[in-house]
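=== RUN LOG ===
request id: a7f3
mode: sequence -> structure
chains: 1
length: 72
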Amino acid sequence: MLAMRHAMERGGRIVAMMLACGLSLTGCLQTQETRFLSCVPRPSGVEARSYEFHDPFADESVGPETFTRPRA
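=== RESULT ===
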């Protein structure tokens, strides 16, 4: 009886931990921001575009001077 109770408590903990991990990971996987591992390198054009950042002030004379510009 004690062994069965211990097994149920242990199984309940495992299920609770798996549920907590599963629920915490649901908001983390977004295809726009997540890049999965692969064995094949991506084409150089795709890699270059992945490092481009949005520049809200495309004209350098507009906006605050930050002394840094995103890659174009």
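=== NOTES ===
Residues 2-25 form the longest helix (24 residues).
The radius of gyration is 24 Å.
=== END ===
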